[in-house]
Amino acid sequence: MNVAYVRVSTAEQNEERQIKAISDRCSSVEKWFTEKVSGKSMDRPKLKEMLDYVREGDTVYVHDLSRLARSTADLLKIVEILEDKKVTLVSNKESIDTSTPTGRLLLTFIGAINEFERDNLLERQREGIAIAKANGKYKGRKKIKRSQFPNWKELYERFSTDRKFSKSAFARELKISRNTLQVLLDEEAAEQQKRKRKTAGISAEIPVDEAIEGQTAFEFSEN
Fold first, then answer.
1. Sign of the C-alpha dihedral, residues 88, 34, 170, 75?
2. C-alpha dist (Å) from residue 209 to 98, 164, 202, 213, 216
3. What is the distance between the alpha carbons of residues 106 and 114, in angstroms, rounded to a whole number?
4. How many CB atoms lie within 10 A of CB 29?
5. What's the Cα-to-Cα distance from 23 to each of 19, 68, 110, 144, 171, rounded to whole Å?
6. Of 66, 91, 142, 143, which has the most beta carbons under 10 Å away?
7. pLDDT reading at 12 higher than 80
8. Rounded mean pLDDT of the chain?
9. Confidence (pTM)
């Protein structure tokens, strides 16, 4: 199925230009998702609806990538969600089609630029933290715990049993990054393994000679 996503930032702006450009590119769009909202975050009703709606084999059309996201990081998250669902992305302005080698290469460049920007940001953060520590003002980042999420067990069970419920979807439900989710998943796995070892070791904690002695004393008292 061919799907289109159209976004303008304010109610005063008109989305007709985008709709016409997409229709000229693909005349067989069957489902349109249109909204008037800022693209500064991924918290957009129609964007979420579109990402939930598309299925394997679908193609999503946009007039340009800035309609999907205003930041490279958000754009790559959206692309990753679409890739996980095996959905193709086509952007008119940048001539990107992720079903082609050229389209995937262009997205790789975008990813490299984002990584470069992130490395620079992390370096500035480290410099700021070093200065704050030197001045005794650094308190560190608050650790995220599974107990913070009331629906953690429910979502974890779904993630463990439903192959269609991807890691990206899991992270999106919790509104955290995939890296943070992986830390929580590793903690969950370690805790489950610890419980298994504890359960398996209960009987091993009782020495064999004590068990036999106890049984003999019991049998003797009965006689």
1. positive
2. 68, 52, 16, 6, 10
3. 13
4. 17
5. 6, 17, 26, 45, 33
6. 91
7. no
8. 83
9. 0.54
The CATH fold assigned to 2-98 is: Rossmann fold (3.40.50)
- Non-local (6+) Cβ contacts of 94 within 8 A are 64, 65, 106
Instruction: Map 100-162 to HEC letters.
Output: CHHHHHHHHHHHHHHHHHHHHHHHHHHHHHHHHHHCCCCCCCCCCCHHHCCCHHHHHHHHHHC
Residues 83/74, Cβ–Cβ less than 8 Å:
no
Tokens 């480290």, located at residue: 126
Percent composition of the chain: helix, strand, coil (DSSP 3-state, to 5): 60, 10, 30
Catalytically annotated residues: 9
Selection from 167, 171, 166 nearest residue 149 by Cα: 171
CA angle 116, 129, 41 (to 5 degrees): 50
Residue spans of the domains in the chain: they are 2-98, 146-205
Angle at 115 between CA 183 and CA 94, to 5 degrees: 125
Asked whether the beta carbons of 7 and 36 are under 8 A apart, the reply is: yes
Residue 88: beta bridge partners? Answer: 59
Residue 206 to residue 194: CA distance in whole angstroms: 19
Q: Of 116, 84, 82, 85, which Cα lies nearest the Cα of 96?
A: 82
Q: What is the pLDDT of residues 19-36, one digit of tens each?
A: 999 999 999 999 999 999
